[in-house]
Design brief:
By secondary structure, this protein is α+β, with helices and mostly antiparallel strands. It contains seven helices and 15 strands. The structure holds pyridoxal-5'-phosphate (PLP).
Length: 284
């Protein structure tokens, strides 16, 4: 049975109840994080908590908690191991529906776990490449906030599925921003490129790690604009996220990327990345 966390209590999931007037439910007035735990240890936990605090500050939800303590207890109550933790903080409930809110509201804090498969044990051949479409980025201009207002992300992913592919990449003002739930990288002549960090994209924790690893291991990289032509003429395209890791994209809008195979720079980065995960797991 899954144990979830709700407002100070650890409960079987069936017993966790939230008010229908909760602003997270009524307005999407809430922020969230998704944090992988490997063998009970949070992956880049400080960075995730840092981003959560950034999101909370940006939407003016005041909620200072021992996040690490809550998450570690939750993971342990769910048997430890390899779990992805979802944490959501809403502005709370005023017992009525009104756009305006009072600063005295008590935020609702909810967290739950789902099992993740052993990606660090997977080899390069186990990773399934993706096909994607490019769609207009109709989101607001604060995509740096990890808000639960995900309707544009949900709709483009569904559009991708309707078109028989697995991912949708957003384009705003002729520049690629990111994917529906992932950051975007391209490789051209051995150099790695990714859109600059700005309020138009989420500052992905995996993205940061990829850039750190590139720096440390002599892979040339640049944060720069990527337009549609550069995207389609790239040798490699990848997307990254905490839940999926780093995944090659081999076809976009029906056009093959590079030679249509997983590229050598991706393979190197995948190995560096899984090595970091493995070290974390084994405590080395
Ligand atoms: N961009 C968006 C819109 C996302 O939703 C996510 C993850 O959910 C990411 C990027 C990747 O972020 P991270 O690597 O922190 O999971």
């Amino acid at each position: 049975m899954n144990i979830v966390y709700l407002n100070g209590e650890f409960l079987p999931e069936q017993e966790a109840k939230v008010s229908v007037f909760d602003r997270g439910f009524l307005f999407g007035d809430s922020v969230y994080e998704v944090i992988p735990f490997y063998q009970g240890v949070g992956f880049r936990l400080d960075e995730h908590i840092g981003r959560l605090n950034h999101s909370l500050r940006a939407v003016r939800i005041q909620n200072d908690q021992d996040w690490v303590g809550i998450l570690e207890q939750l993971v342990s109550k769910n048997g430890g191991g390899n779990l992805s933790v979802y944490l959501q903080v809403t502005r709370g409930s005023a017992g009525k529906r009104s756009h305006a809110y009072d600063d005295s509201l008590q935020p609702t804090v909810f967290a739950c776990c789902t099992e993740i498969k052993d990606i660090w044990q997977a080899g390069v051949d186990d990773v399934v490449s993706l096909k994607a479409i490019v769609t207009e980025d109709l989101r607001w201009h604060r995509c740096d906030i990890k808000s639960t207002c995900l309707l544009p992300n949900i709709l483009v992913l569904q559009q991708a599925k309707d078109e028989g592919v697995q991912e949708a990449l957003f384009s705003r003002d002729e520049k690629l921003t990111e994917g529906s739930a992932c950051n975007l990288f391209i490789v051209k002549r051995g150099v790695l490129y990714t859109p600059k960090r700005s309020s138009e994209i989420l500052g992905g924790i995996t993205r940061e790690l990829i850039l750190e690893l590139a720096d440390k291991h002599g892979i040339q990289f640049q944060e720069s604009d990527i337009d549609y032509d550069r995207l389609l003429s790239a040798d490699e395209v990848w997307v990254s996220s905490s839940t999926r890791g780093i995944v090659p994209v081999i076809e976009i809008d029906g056009q093959q990327i590079g030679n249509g195979q997983k590229g050598p720079v991706w393979q190197k980065m995948f190995e560096l990345f899984t090595d970091v995960q493995r070290k974390l797991m084994t405590g080395r």
